[in-house]
């Protein structure tokens, strides 16, 4: 007989969803308006809409399919990703529009604000990748709401205290999401993780679907890195697109080589490959403002792929044994380490271009402060979220029901007929 529905799905999920959605509708009814007369960084609607579509595909299709590699968690991997993404985006629009709400009485909604909201959502989806299969949908929604709140707060602090450019503060989403998720895995650790969960495995069919998500992410990542750049500066957006593509291409080739070299059997690992070929896009996105030549982007992509591939092979198991952090999707290897590498590359490239030592020192201090604030805030908000979710009120799934769709979805062909 199929397992009964998780109690939280009936008594907690539906009331939570209805409460949130009705609340959002009320807020949007009284405090938002469509900003149809404003151009996004000097671009028209027709030219910006294609970039918005690309980011939307990444968030919904890319992150959705990439979590379907688990053999019995495909419904939840893709379905809950869509549910969390649309709720988190609505919430991010409200939080990002708080300043406009305060000064104008209305939250201005346009394509740019939608893109920024979806990028905040991407940070939450990165964090959720560490907990895929070990939580119920109520957990995922709470994680997304609190993580987006922390990330928007981090943006505000960087732009207010350090006068960071909005693009640079937003692209730290990889670092913020990875360390936030790391704290969740540490606080919500399960003893069963040490022996590996029974259903935490993949087969050919689920691996193929998951690779489809990686392909979507890989194809549209140049738009993700360049969408918020000012199009009025000649060549800046084109440079970002070219740099991202070259870094992704190099990281794909390098990841394939290092994957074989690091394998005891000399074969490719599908899950390792699909995670590590994206490392170049992550690293270049964080370091974009310091890249001026194609070879710089290619070098960063090469280094990111090496770090990510080796990290996937050895970091995940060592984090589990040493720190009791069990990651499902190896987020630290895919986003955390490449993100930190991109931050370091930007520091080196910007200092190289400085005219004098005083400017270089000031930039270095400023740059170090940005990552320290980001990591500190991500760790602290991750700890708070983890402690909140540790409360049994949320009814976490039992170990034997982890990584199993049957706890949350109907399977008519498995129903017992009387």
UniProtKB/TrEMBL annotation:
Q: Name one GO molecular function term.
A: ammonium channel activity
Q: Mind listing the GO biological process terms from this record?
A: ammonium homeostasis
Q: Which UniProt keywords apply?
A: Membrane, Transmembrane, Transmembrane helix
One Pfam family assigned to this protein is Ammonium_transp
Classify the main location.
Answer: membrane
Q: What is its membrane topology?
A: Multi-pass membrane protein
One GO CC term of this entry? plasma membrane
Name the residues that span the membrane.
12-31, 55-75, 82-103, 140-158, 170-188, 208-224, 244-261, 273-291, 297-315, 327-345, 365-389
| Residue ranges of every copy of the Ammonium transporter AmtB-like domain listed in the record | 19-390
Task: Extract the InterPro entries matched here.
Answer: Ammonium/urea_transptr, NH4_transpt_AmtB-like_dom, RhesusRHD
Compartment(s) of residence:
Membrane
Protein's job: Functions as an ammonia transporter. May play a role in the elimination of ammonia in the gill.
Record family assignment = Belongs to the ammonium transporter (TC 2.A.49) family. Rh subfamily.
**This protein is called what?**
Rh blood group, D antigen
């Amino acid at each position: 007989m199929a397992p009964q529905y998780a109690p939280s799905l009936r008594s907690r999920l539906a009331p939570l969803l209805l409460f949130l959605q009705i609340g959002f509708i009320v807020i949007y009814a009284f405090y938002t308006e469509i900003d149809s007369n404003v151009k996004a960084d000097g671009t028209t609607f027709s030219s910006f809409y294609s970039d918005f579509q690309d980011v939307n595909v990444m968030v919904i299709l890319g992150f959705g399919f990439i979590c379907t590699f688990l053999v019995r968690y495909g419904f939840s991997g893709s379905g809950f990703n869509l549910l969390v993404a649309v709720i988190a985006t609505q919430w991010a629009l409200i939080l990002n529009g708080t300043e406009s709400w305060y000064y104008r009485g209305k939250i201005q909604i346009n394509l740019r604000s939608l893109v920024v909201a979806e990028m905040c959502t991407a940070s939450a989806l990165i964090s959720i990748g560490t907990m895929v299969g070990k939580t119920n949908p109520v957990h995922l929604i709470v994680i997304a709401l609190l993580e987006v709140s922390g990330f928007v707060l981090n943006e505000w602090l960087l732009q207010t205290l350090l006068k960071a450019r909005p693009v640079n503060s937003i692209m730290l989403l990889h670092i913020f999401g990875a360390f936030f998720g790391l704290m969740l895995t540490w606080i919500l650790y399960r003893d069963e993780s040490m022996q590996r969960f029974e259903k935490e495995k993949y087969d050919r069919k689920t691996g193929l679907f998951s690779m489809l998500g990686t392909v979507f992410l890989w194809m549209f990542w140049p738009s993700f890195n360049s969408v918020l750049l000012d199009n009025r500066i000649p060549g800046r957006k084109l440079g970002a697109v070219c740099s991202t593509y070259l870094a992704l291409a190099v990281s794909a080739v390098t990841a394939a080589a290092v994957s074989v070299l690091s394998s005891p059997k000399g074969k490719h690992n599908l899950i390792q490959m699909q995670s590590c070929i994206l490392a170049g896009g992550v690293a270049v996105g964080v370091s974009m403002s310091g890249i001026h030549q194609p070879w710089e982007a290619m070098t960063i992509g090469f280094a990111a792929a090496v770090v990510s591939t080796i990290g996937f092979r050895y970091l995940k198991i060592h984090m589990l044994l040493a720190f009791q952090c069990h990651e499902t999707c190896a987020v630290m290897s895919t986003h955390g380490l490449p993100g930190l590498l991109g931050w370091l590359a930007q520091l080196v490239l910007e200092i190289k271009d400085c005219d004098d030592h005083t400017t270089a020192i000031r930039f270095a201090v400023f740059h170090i402060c940005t990552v320290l604030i980001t990591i500190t805030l991500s760790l602290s908000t991750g700890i708070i979220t983890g402690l909140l979710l540790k409360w049994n009120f949320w009814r976490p799934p039992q170990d034997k029901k982890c990584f199993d769709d049957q706890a949350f979805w109907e399977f008519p062909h498995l129903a017992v007929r009387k």
